[in-house]
Amino acid sequence: MDKNVKMGRTAGLWKVYAFTLVELLVVIAIIGILIALLLPAVQAARDAARRMQCTNNLKQLALGCHNMHNSVKHFPSHSHQEGLPTDSHYWRISWPPMLCPYIEESARYEQIMQIVQDRLDISPYHTQQSYTINGVVYENPYAGVISALVCPSEVIRSPVDGVLGITSYKINIGDETYNNSISLGNDSLKRGVAGRGDQYVCNIEIINDGASNTVLFCESTITTGFDKPIATLRGGIAQTTADVYRMPLSLVEECRNYRNGPNLRTVFPYSRRGGRWADAYGPVFTGVHMVLPPNSPSCSYNHFEFCFMAASSYHTGGCQVAMCDGSVQFVSDTVDCKRDDYSQLLSENRLSVGNSEKSYFGVWGALGSRNGGENVGIP
After folding, report:
1. Which of 220, 218, 226, 261 is nearest to 240 (CA)?
2. Other beta carbons within 10 Å of 183
3. Is residue 108 part of a domain?
């Protein structure tokens, strides 16, 4: 065959290959563009699905509270559950175990009640899988994660304190900052829907501001680590410069300013917010304060008893709350959280809100108080 003919054919083949390669690269580029366009939509769909499941979790907890109310005529307390012993560690049983019969965890509830009845030394803070008492092996009913207590958007999805379960949802202990660690005196928290059960229990009749205007549960994210820098306030608890046990408004403002503060660290020790699903010792595990708006800092001085917990979530722009009427609402980060005369209150360095006094903390605080005389709903 003529050499020029062969070269012509070879050149033609190379042109075909080049054209095919160009076509292939164009197809790959188009696929890449489509993927780039679709990924945000897929991510948004996943986020929407997680938020919907989170909404359903809150709805089920609220319905569980109402079913409990129908049975025993009141909601669960944060600590010192009515009908349980208040000595030893039994007072530390918080609200989630009391709802277990109403969220398809009856077997776990029966285990806990058997431990209480037999006065066994197995508490909400014991971190092993099982315990041997008088030669008998008992499984720890506080072990393991209950899916209904964990938002699918959480970063933390497994136990962080031994085998103990975790919770993304916290009960409303009100809009007070004074004695916020569930104090031992008669001045314990009483403005929210949960506090010490030996001081008061909450039912629909004493929610004077209206069930649709009062928060029952808030999302509050689980702490991501111990005593180390935190990349986001959602993942930790900031340390204050003074004790928050009897917190004046000036310390509330210090905590508020940590939103943009440098060198944030989680507090120590044993203060993983939401790290013990059944433990009422301090509000850090199962309670939330309606003081600063969603995704504000949670703050502590140096211990999980001396702290106050903010609502927070990994949803964009705010968090979800369950109201006392059973509805679930979304509350924006920008919700009003200061009374009109807040500056005056701040200058007076106030500590505590009176039982029938308007909340210091605007709309958000009003949603946290059951008896502040405010007919305020979610904006």
Report:
1. 261
2. 16
3. yes
Q: Which residue has the higher pLDDT, 238 or 274?
A: 274
Task: Check: CB of residue 145 under 8 Å from CB of residue 157.
Answer: yes
Domain count, the chain: 1
**Got the DSSP string for 161-187?**
STTB---SEEEE--S--BTTTT-SSTT
To 5 degrees, how large is the angle CA 340–CA 343–CA 348?
120
Contact present, 304 and 270 (Cβ < 8 Å): yes
179: in domain: yes
Q: Say if 12 falls within a structural domain.
A: no
pTM over 0.90? The answer is no
* Identity of residue 314: Y
Q: 247 exposed, middle or buried (CB, 10 Å; 0-12, 13-18, 19+)? A: buried
pLDDT confidence bin for 224, thresholds 50/70/90 = confident
pLDDT at 291 over 60: yes
Phi, psi of 144 (to 5 degrees): 90, 150
Q: Does residue 35 belong to any structural domain of this protein? A: no
Q: How confident is the model at residue 10 (pLDDT cuts 50, 70, 90)?
A: low
CA distances in angstroms from 196 to 86, 95, 117, 132, 201, listed in the order given: 10, 11, 21, 31, 8
